[in-house]
Amino acid sequence: MRCTIETGDIFFLYTARPSAARGPADVHELAVILSPDRDPPSRLLVVHGRQLPAPANGTPGPPVQATVIAVRQPTEELVSLLEGRVIHHGRRVVPRPARPCGEGRYLLTLHDGHTDLTYALELPATPGPVQHDLGLAAQATYRITIQPPPAAGLGAQPAAGFRPLTDTHWLNREGGEVRLEPVVEPDAPTVVRQPEGPATAEIFGELKLSRPAHPVEALYQGVWV
Known about the structure:
This protein has one domain.
């Protein structure tokens, strides 16, 4: 039996090395924000390798890891933290405004001793080159496991390896490592999507992004900017 243990909004953003990103080589970091409907705070995860794995097609795919960089409430504080992760060029510090590139809904469901993260994009309506290059599928299901940081106090061996995410509060530990493995789940739950557009996009209301400072082409048209 499958049990839903958390629902919420999922946001994808990237920061670019130059002032404009012309492709995945210009991406400095790919970030995921999980904003639960209940029991805040929200979590900022940075994906290793700057790309999510493609959804499983018949057999499970290779996993990817992400680090829980920050846990905050209100959610908007996570954007400035992401943008504050600077690049040093000699003595220069180069700011990196975040570009939104995906918005949707997610579910965390517990099933047979493991937990799945299932999400579905609401924006862009049709994934474009940005989403293809960063591995953001229209919908996907990943087996999610976690390795808490040593100070998490989760038993005698808190960081001995990845373990099933049976308690969502483990995601609220900064420095924790998350592993996402694409899986085929015939009974994966359906994520209910709502049509979104410029007037209703949650990413601007919840993250308080300013459109002039945060280009929207990647979010609406799926093109690099």
